[in-house]
Amino acid sequence: MISDEHQIQKIIRWLESREKLLITGHQRPDGDCLGSALALGLALDKTGKKCSIVSSDTLPHMYSSLPGADKITRCVQIKEDYDGVITLECGSAERSGIQGLANLSTVNIDHHPSTENWAEINWINPAVSAVGELIFLLIEAMGVPITPAIASNLFAAIMTDTGSFQYSNTSEQTLLIASRLVSYGASPAEITQTVYMNQKASRLHLLARVLETLEIDKSGKIATVSMNLDDLEATGAEADDTEGFVNYPLSIQGIEACALFRQSSLHNYRVSLRSRQKIDVSKVAVQFKGGGHARAAGFSLNNLSLSEARDLVLARLKELL
What we know:
Elements: H1 4-16, E1 20-25, H2 31-46, E2 50-55, E3 72-74, E4 84-88, E5 106-110, E6 121-124, H3 131-142, H4 148-161, H5 172-183, H6 188-196, H7 201-211, E7 215-216, E8 222-227, H8 229-235, H9 247-250, E9 257-265, E10 268-275, H10 282-287, E11 291-292, E12 296-302, H11 306-320
Parallel strand pairs: 1-2, 1-4, 2-3, 4-5, 5-6, 8-9
Antiparallel strand pairs: 7-8, 9-10, 10-12, 11-12
């Protein structure tokens, strides 16, 4: 693996010749993607660069109060001239959901092991817990002072991708960086309140309906839950309100892997997988042109009913038990 320091210096040299930059992440952005994008945008602003932070999807409510979140705009087609784009956690230009990125000089920063070297500069380190760790290292190397706003976004990025430091991806470096961020002004209590204690009632109504669909296979080791479009209409919730729902079945004693099937349109489903230590769910995701980590992965299934999609995924997961 190419060292982080080597890739950091390449990115810094790439930045030196560019003034107008675009920062974006993957479709259906999570806390790591958004917190990292905001932190990087705030840092580059301090160097005099002109940065636009965009997303192909609307900002999830739980992240709407992160510092600078109002700077994120929705975009599905590049219409302005940029010197370059920095993508976060994108396995391809298409993963961003934004058309026109392929024509720009691109740096892709990621920590998913399934991501390939598709950009001009690729900094991929699967050993870190979150892309927020990499952005922290980059900002420090740039010599940009880390403000409380930058620190808070990075802390939120790392906190959410480690399950509040509960997941197995939490390392000594993760905790050291989190400690440094607190010293720079990040408040764990305030960030936790902002992200986790600021939910809409509609999200909890949706969660109640999703948990009612809980099914456990005969082995007692695999659980599934599902959500359809009628659930959204009935509760007034939005599709991104399902973030984190897949983790609930995994909390059941004896469960080794679980799946959330989220209907995106008629006969089309977005599948999120989670597992404990015994199953590498990324092996299932890549079979369906998805990706992710050993313990968290996702993909889409099209032209299938819910029962067909469930049977297909259960069969793949059982092969790994």
